[in-house]
Specification:
With 334 residues, this protein is of the alpha/beta class. It is built from 11 helices and 11 strands. It has helices at residues 20-33, 44-50, 83-96, 107-118, 143-164, 179-188, 202-216, 233-245, 265-283, 303-308, 315-324; strands spanning 7-12, 37-41, 53-56, 100-105, 123-127, 167-172, 192-194, 222-227, 249-253, 289-294, 297-302. The protein is elongated. The structure holds adenosine-5'-triphosphate.
């Protein structure tokens, strides 16, 4: 007979993302709706090891959907990476009587959940990261808000770059992935987007198009978007442009501002659905699963299987971006 779920734990871990709070609220409210207690674990795996928690009732998660950051705090725990640390985490689960655990975070968080499931803890992962780099899911909580924050900043930068006839090189987050940079670049009408997944011939794909636009179209300002995972980063790209063109080239690293702010409608709603589905899975006796969005449907995957999948760059968007920016203009027609 399946064990009845009486108490669920929820935590946020890894890099924070707008919408994590909405997911926490959804987990707590869904659990309470089903007659299950909910405990919020503070500071990710660190809190699980140290028994840092607070009970979540209906009112304590009220108004959370619209708030950025995470009320449960987030952390990266080195101690959890070793077996002794994980055993302490399991002991906390036993002490608190946690029958199921929902972890909201990125692939590192899911690796941790996988280890906990091997130790007998029922776990479900919810993808929360602005990088949108979880292969089994077309979308991760926080991505839309981060894109909009970056776009807003870049639009403002463009005004001043235009006034001073400068070349702007903007670095956006995304760790090893270029999804955020590419999407933002398309939305901003960038001169070029440089991502780690695609090789680029700087002279052919970036410098020459800038020279052509300068000489034939009298264009006086340029906006180049660089993903943080690109070798040399924005400073390296800016140096290449400066050396080759003598343009007044300025670097802006958008940085952590992209992680903040009130979540967009998409992030609030996605987080709410994912939190709801996570609790339903635990109540159905499922474990070691991650909630994903695929073809507009919420589905779940085995965590090990999800972690073995690789997410490639959206080549269709990359092709469209190249066709509309200077990057493709000089390519010989097939
Ligand atoms: P983001 O994508 O935003 O960085 P993340 O969840 O990938 O989020 P990480 O720092 O990679 O962030 O992972 C969060 C935590 O998960 C780590 O600090 C660590 O405690 C735990 N973790 C990561 N990898 C493992 C692993 N292989 N085994 C056990 N625990 C892990």
């Amino acid at each position: 007979m399946e064990k009845k779920v009486r108490r669920i734990g929820v935590f946020t871990s890894g890099g924070d993302a707008p919408g994590m709070n909405a997911a926490v609220r959804a987990v707590a409210r869904t659990a309470l709706h089903m007659g299950i207690e909910c405990i919020g674990i503070r500071r990710g795996y660190h809190g699980l090891i140290n028994g840092d928690f607070l009970p979540l009732d209906f009112n304590s998660v009220s108004g959370l959907s619209r708030r950025g950051g995470t009320m449960l705090y987030s952390a990266r725990s080195k101690e959890f990476m070793v077996p002794e640390g994980r055993e302490k985490a399991v002991a906390t689960c036993k002490l608190l009587g946690i029958d199921g655990l929902v972890g909201i975070g990125g692939d590192g968080t899911f690796r941790g959940l996988l280890e906990l499931s091997k130790l007998g803890v029922a776990v479900v992962g919810v993808p929360g990261t602005i990088d949108n780099d979880i292969a089994c899911s077309s979308y991760t909580i926080g991505y839309d808000t981060a894109c909009n924050t970056a776009i807003d900043s870049i639009d403002k930068l463009r005004d001043t770059m235009q006034s001073h006839e400068r070349c702007s090189v903007v670095e956006v987050m995304g760790r090893h992935a270029g999804h955020l940079a590419l999407y933002v670049g398309v939305a901003c009408g960038a001169t070029a987007v440089i991502v780690p997944e695609q090789e680029i011939d700087y002279e052919h794909d970036l410098i020459e198009p800038i020279r052509q636009a300068r000489s034939h179209e009298q264009r006086t300002h340029f906006m180049v978007i660089v993903a943080e995972g690109v070798e040399g980063g924005a400073y390296g790209v800016a140096e290449k442009i400066r050396e080759a063109t003598a343009l007044d080239t300025r670097v802006t690293i958008l940085g952590h501002v992209q992680r903040g702010g009130a979540p967009s409608a998409r992030d609030r709603v996605t987080a709410t659905y994912m939190g709801y589905e996570a609790v339903k899975l635990l109540v159905a006796g499922k474990t070691n699963r991650v909630i994903c969005l695929q073809d507009d449907k919420y589905v779940d995957f085995d965590i090990a299987e999800a972690l073995s999948m690789k997410k490639s760059l959206d080549i269709q968007t990359y092709t469209v971006m190249k066709a509309l920016t200077g990057m493709e203009q000089l390519k010989p027609k097939a």
